[in-house]
Fold this protein.
Amino acid sequence: MEKWQGLNKHSILAQATRQEVLGLYRRIFRLVRKWQAASGQMEDTIKEKQYILNEARTLFQKNKNLTDTDLIKQCIDECTARIEIGLHYQIPYPRPIHLPPMGLTPLRGRGLRSQEKLRKLSKPVYLKSHDEIS
């Protein structure tokens, strides 16, 4: 009990979040050690492993100074989704989505700005940071 007296809710939450983020980072490195390309080719496996490591390092480095808990939660959700999708489909790359131009109809007309806004809102969680670093 005395151990927790000096800590407030924010620092406890920050520590829990830090542990969750570090756990995801370790999970990615464990995943890379066991990763096999779906093609079975050694060259493909090496390229895919390198892609996974580079992507993880880039995104974790980019987001290391985030302090907003909601934004950190979004990044954690994206990371978890990308890991699960990669394992399920046996591809390390984000799955592309196709939205035809002007395909999202807003209630009040079909303006370009509203289409851009709807596209941004409809982007899956696992693609949120992909465009930022590509």
Q: What stands out?
A: The helical segments are 2-5, 9-34, 42-62, 69-89, 112-122, 130-133. Residues 2-96 form one domain. DSSP finds six helices and no strands in the chain.
